[in-house]
User: What shape does this take?
Amino acid sequence: HLAESGGGLVQAGGSLRISCTASRGAFTLYAVGWFRQAPGKEDREFVGVTSWNGGSSWYTDSVEGRFTLSRDNAKSTVYLQMSDLKPEDTAIYYCAAGIMSSLVTAGTGSSTRDYDYWGQGTQVTVSA
Assistant: This one.
């Protein structure tokens, strides 16, 4: 019961914020992660994950320093702010929710198997 929104077309170097909203369920129980699937790739690549209260997050190296996760539990929404976008960031972005430790550290939530619920994805295209 997750839905992503906010995807679109942006020029390289630009910024975009995508959202993940839960329609029902105890959203505050769940850590939320983002994955992406690039064109022609079969696997989903881990992007980042934030803890149930947004107090801890971590990111894959390729987006560290450019992407930032935040969440508003009152709105049951997690945001992925993406800056300095590159053509290689082009992908379908998926959010997912799973039960994890309250402290998210490097390595936590990096596998698709760590998550119980998934959204349908939102397309992000970065033009050169």
